[in-house]
User: Fold this.
Amino acid sequence: MNKEALLSIAERDFILDALREDVRLDGRAADQLRPLTLSFEEEHGHVKVQLGKTSLIVRISAEVAQPHDDRPFDGIFNIAMELTAMGSPAWDNGRQGDLETYVTNVLDRVIRHSNALDTESLCILKGVSCWTIRADVHITDYDGNLIDASCIGVMAGLQHFRRPDAVVKDGQVIVYGLDERVPVPLNITHKPLSVSFHTFDEGKLVVLDATRKEEQASEADVVIGMNNAGDVCYLSKFSGSPVDAMVFVTKTTVALDKVKEINGIIDKALQADLAKRAKGGLAEESRAANDR
Amino acid sequence: MGGPIASLNPLNRADGSASYKCVSTGSNILGSVNAPIELPGRRDALKPEEATIEVFVKPGTAPGGVGERYIEGVIRNALGRLILGRENGYPRRGVVITLAIVGGESVGRGGSYLPLLPALLHTAALALLSASVPLSMTLSATVLAVDSSGEIIREPSVKDAKAATSLHALAFTSKGQLLLNESEGAFDFGTWETVYERALAICHGTSTLSSDGDVAMTENVDSQPLEGVLRDTVQDQIHSEYAWKIDAA
Assistant:
């Protein structure tokens, strides 16, 4: 199993014919995102992402652990994603499917390998203790474009998360509780996001942010990972039929626009949440500056 | 004490779903049910005349482990008594229940799942109701902690649960029968009896069975009985779903 029910031929043809006339099932333009909403829960690093009908929950957690022997200066950062029957009836609980491996791999490459989270800043005491940051992605509804949605969720979660403060005193590590000291935000070096495109009709039609049905009707997918500055940190053409080289050239420009747009939405949501928390929070109490 | 907050059908793809938030323990559970569903490649293991119930508990911020597998078994056994797996269309099929702990403090490695058990059971029951899975009855559950002075704490917080000498999770069917009894720690029969009485009152109130078989519920010291909370959640959902019909009448 672990595969969605196939589209009927009529449905596939309908999607394709509509796309040839520049019409998408939900009335979007080819380079338009579905409506994206982010909401933060009370706990730091707990994000709900809703992208069209795809929705997921990301929870970031921190734990003190021993660093890997070969990298004594580095903290540990993991992205854990497990597809359960909650997201789609086609997914089996406790069994890894192709989609899960693929999405986890892309997330790893876009966020972890591009060093979005500075792991060296997670070191507490060389070779003895460091922070382990874990991002858990729970897919609650699957309607296509899992990669972009989870990427948005993890990046928003990392920016929202605050870890407890830890201090080394006489070789002893002291971790202060969340109510004892102002928790510390993570050190984010840059904000990469992925943007996926799907191609149809021998690569002539390229569509952004495909829904589940569009994904099933498509021939191939192209994923571009990029940050606000336009640095490409991931580029993949994983499977399916060939795609023209010009698609990569033109779509990187589109991707940059989208990355800026999405990062704008994330920033706005973070600001709104921060403003809500600022009232009567610990950060406010411990601030030394006077009101002018 | 505030009662739990529950809602039905928060998800689109699953056949039935429920979200449940327990105010006193702070846990937030999202549950989904897919039923009846074709289970692949396990024909030999199935009881041919009954539906197979699968429960999956997904911790919020940790990989799943032995603790989850154990509590899955407990939940599966309890729900197996409620689900009518021989109804038309269910034999040889699966009832897949997925429970994700999306909020609140997560259970550490080797930690006890008992404080979360009532929330998990309630979420599962509500999700089953929202998926319209045939049930013989519903359930309500609670967890009580007994501290060193013999005082009973209802739905203890993580800190209280750690300090308690014994923890008791009890579930009752909608008819008031004891469905599940899981205890931890040292206690004697007398303690258990008082815990049982208190749990029954929390779940059912001091209910009286009227002559027409309807269960009349009265409020007591523990505010609204849990059985009533679940009933109200489903009633509200039905009310909003049938608004078109009710308004027309």
